[in-house]
Design brief:
2 helices, binds zinc ion
């Protein structure tokens, strides 16, 4: 571990500011994906667009994001559109547990789909957010109480360098 005392990583104010931004962005992202997942249990929103033999669909269904490829002539080359139906209505793809879905294409049943659950994004986002909130609180505490940015030692009586870890605080 480098003991470079002029290392900008240990300047408190920019660190607090960066961490505040990270907390804000991660919270917004976590809430957004969670709301999308929640709404998908009430209604199914889809983006549908046609290809030469049918249509592609990107659908939010029961907490999963599902991609479909249907072979249906009446949908071929249809323009991009947004549809929304009741979660309980219409045919739906089966579930492989935990929100994963998959069905291979076959000539007898010409539909392919693959789905990933949104919790796969929500869980790491929420954990990263929690970690950033803890860091943010610690940095704020150190900034407010004159503690060393790196090790948390009280450096109010030693303006030159931290007696514990040797960090020369950059005065901001
Ligand atoms: Zn220190």
């Amino acid at each position: 571990m480098s003991q470079n005392n002029r290392d900008d990583r240990w300047r408190l104010k920019p660190r607090v500011r960066r961490t505040t931004w990270a907390v804000g962005l991660l919270t917004v992202a976590t809430v957004l994906v969670t709301v999308l997942a929640g709404v998908s249990f009430v209604r199914r929103d889809s983006l549908v667009w046609g290809h030469d033999d049918g249509s592609y669909t990107l659908q939010l269904d029961r907490g999963s994001l599902v991609f479909f490829d249907y072979a249906r002539n009446n949908f071929a080359r249809s323009p991009l559109r947004w549809t929304s139906i009741d979660a309980g209505s219409g045919p739906r793809a089966g579930d492989r547990g935990l929100g994963f879905l998959y069905k291979a294409w076959s000539a007898a049943d010409p539909i392919f789909f693959v789905g990933i659950p949104l919790w796969i994004a929500i869980v790491p986002l929420a954990l990263a957010d929690l970690l950033c909130i803890c860091t943010w609180r610690r940095l704020r505490h150190r900034a407010a109480h004159g503690l060393c940015a790196r090790c948390g030692y009280d450096v109010r009586a030693s303006p030159g360098a931290c007696p514990e870890c040797g960090l020369h605080p950059c005065h901001e």
